[in-house]
Amino acid sequence: MSILIKNAYIVTMDKDGAGEIPNGFLLIENNLISKIGSIDSIGDISGDNSGDADSISADTVIDAGGAVLMPGLSNTHTHLGMTLLRGYADDMALQSWLETKIWPAEANLTAEDVYYGSLLGCLEMIRSGTTAFCDMYFFMDETAKAVDAAGIRGCLAYGMIEFGDLEKGNKEIAMNEKLVRDWQGKAGGRITTMYGPHAPNTCCQSFIKRVKEAAERDGVGVHIHVLETEAELNYMKENFDMCSVHHLDAVDFWNTSKVPILAAHSVWMSDGDIRLFAEKGVTVSHNPVSNMKLASGIAPIQKMLDAGVKVTLGTDGCASNNNLNMFEEMKTAALLQKVGTMDPTALPAKAVVEMATVNGGRVIDSMTGVLKAGNKADMILVDTSKANATPIFDVYSHLVYSAAASDVKTMIVDGKILMQDYNVLVMDEKEIMKKANECALSLAERAKAK
Ligand SMILES: O=c1[nH]cnc2c1ncn2[C@@H]1O[C@H](CO)[C@@H](O)[C@H]1O
Ligand SMILES: [Zn+2]
């Protein structure tokens, strides 16, 4: 199976390689990129099967017609099953939002709810250019089945909350172990797994240490919320006389020599915390829209980048965003850093695109996030034949400040076309929206009845 994409403005995100290729072609063989380059340099690439030495032939030829071809976006922090809770509880602070609305609703979740919520999430991601995501939630078998069916890439963790209860902790860890056992490397490698201790104020230190040991034993990463709110920082200081980062450093949690650590939010970071993350090689998932909506604060992202921290981008769940739109997330990330530092040069457009592609890709699959020969074929075409794409002086500026998620017209993941010319090929959209809506309404009814 081979696919040739021609006449594309290729944004490779390859620092050591091609950069941008204005009149480019890209050849996919099976699930890998086998050739990428400039059409001008090779002459005819008609894409027919004539066998002409000058022509590259392929089973399928896509004429990009000048659209931007770029790596798919990686959303490194979300809770896909929560897509059903979009708009369920807004305009609240994190702790009361969780305690009075979200957790009571989640207590009524069924496997079917999470399956349709996850499929709906996959559909929204396909339509908005996200080829890969990191998740932390419950009923993860259902999310895994949805990812398998949708054809995208997912790094799945089971969200463990134990509140210092040893027995609950044992059960939670067993659930995550099962997820790793059952799904690591499945769906042709599109599904990977992590361990997901929820946060330093919902899981105790010794439990998180145990989780880290399990992750190292299994060779998978750890995904955790950290320093999302000032309330968490104050709670940790009052109870442990130090912040979450140092509390976990005391058990060597941030050591990434064996497995990667993905720290979502990381809003209330001191300069010392930032240095520690840089030294240890911790990956941060910055979630600006959720942080603004819950009024959690402004993560010091420019400082983190200056210190050498690996920063990626995520939407968080649909109950606190309220969508999975990574284009919106890119623009918000840039704007928030600027106003937060009162410096318009903070977090420039290209750095944001790097966060959403290269950096995010790396934490999910080291062979994604950059378009180059040998990498996995995960990519999108962004339509530039629109008013909001006229003119384009700088492609990164366009992608961050002007492009819309609805400009994504084609998506390929692992060498398979999931959407072509705005047609989603891998699922029945109307049916999924209908089923997800039914599940959401019924879930809200059950939550109300209790
Ligand atoms: O922004 C957030 N901060 C903390 N917890 C969250 C956030 N968004 C969702 N959850 C919660 O995390 C658990 C997933 O394992 C769920 O309970 C979900 O509601
Ligand atoms: Zn979250």
TrEMBL record:
It catalyses: S-methyl-5'-thioadenosine + H2O + H(+) = S-methyl-5'-thioinosine + NH4(+); 5'-deoxyadenosine + H2O + H(+) = 5'-deoxyinosine + NH4(+); adenosine + H2O + H(+) = inosine + NH4(+); S-adenosyl-L-homocysteine + H2O + H(+) = S-inosyl-L-homocysteine + NH4(+). Its EC number is 3.5.4.41, 3.5.4.31, 3.5.4.4, 3.5.4.28. Signal peptide: none annotated. GO terms for biological process: S-adenosylmethionine biosynthetic process. Substrate binds at E106, H198, E228, D316. Keywords: Hydrolase, Metal-binding, Zinc. Homotetramer. Belongs to the metallo-dependent hydrolases superfamily. MTA/SAH deaminase family. SAH is a product of SAM methyltransferases and is known to be a feedback inhibitor of these enzymes. As a result of this inhibition, organisms have evolved efficient enzymes to metabolize SAH via different pathways. The pathway found in methanogens differs from the canonical pathway, it uses the deamination of S-adenosyl-L-homocysteine to form S-inosyl-L-homocysteine for the regeneration of SAM from S-adenosyl-L-homocysteine. 5'-deoxyadenosine is a radical SAM enzyme reaction product which strongly inhibits radical SAM enzymes. HAMAP family: MTA_SAH_deamin (MF_01281). This is 5'-deoxyadenosine deaminase. It comes from Methanimicrococcus hongohii. The gene is mtaD.
